[in-house]
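Subject: sequence -> C-alpha cells, single chain

Hey, anyone have a minute? Need the predicted structure for the following. Not urgent.
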Amino acid sequence: MSDSIAEARGVRKVYDTRGVVTAALDGIDFRVQEGEFAALAGPSGSGKTTLLNMLGALDAPTEGKVFIDGEDLSRMSSGELSDLRLAKLGFVFQAYNLIPVFSARENVEFVMELQQVPAAERRERALAMLAEVGLEGLGDKRPLELSGGQQQRVAVARAIVGRPRMVLADEPTANLDSETAARLLELMGDLNREHGTTFLFSTHDPMVMEAARRLVRLRDGRIVDDSREPSV
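Reply:
Had a minute. Here:
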C-alpha cells in the first residue's frame, strides 16, 4: 500500500447520549503519508481529536475502516492493537500524561521498557533524547519539579524515543505560552526533517497551523479543506 502510514476509509463515529445521536465523524476519507508534518484543524466539536484517536488505534469507528501500514485495525485483537501502538506510534497528549512518581528519564525510558530494550541502552537513549529536546541535566527531576514547557518536552521525548513511524499530538501547545510553543514546534519540525518522523497534530492554535506543511480543516465531522504546501 504505497507510502501511506495511516488511512481512514469511509469512517463514521456516532455517539448516542441518552437517545441523542451525534456524528463526531461523518464519512471521512483521509491518508497520512510518510514524512508528513500535518495538522487537523477546526473548532471544538469538529471531529479532529476523534479522527486523531482513530488513526492512533485508540478508538474504533462505528462504520468504515482504519489502516496502519496497510493493516486493517478492525481485524486485530486488543492485544495486537496494543503491540501495534507500541511498535509504530508515539503519542503527545494535551495533559502530558507523565507518570508523577517517575523522573523525566524514567518517563522517557518507560516506552522502551515496554519494548523490552535492555536497561543500559534504555538509559543511554533516554538521556540522549532529553538532551536533544533541551533538557540535558534534568533527567532526575520529577514532573512536578519541571515547568509546563519542560513537561511537554519530556512528553515529546517519550513519544519519539521508541522510534515510531508516526507521532500523534493532541493540542500540543494548548497549555504553553507562545515562546515555549514556538520552541516546541521548532523542535518537532527538526525531528521531522532530521529523522523523517511523521507528525500529525490536532489543533486550534494558529501557530501550529502556520507551521504545518499540510493543513486539514474539519467542520461538523467532515473534511472541508485539505491543503499542502507546494513542492519546492
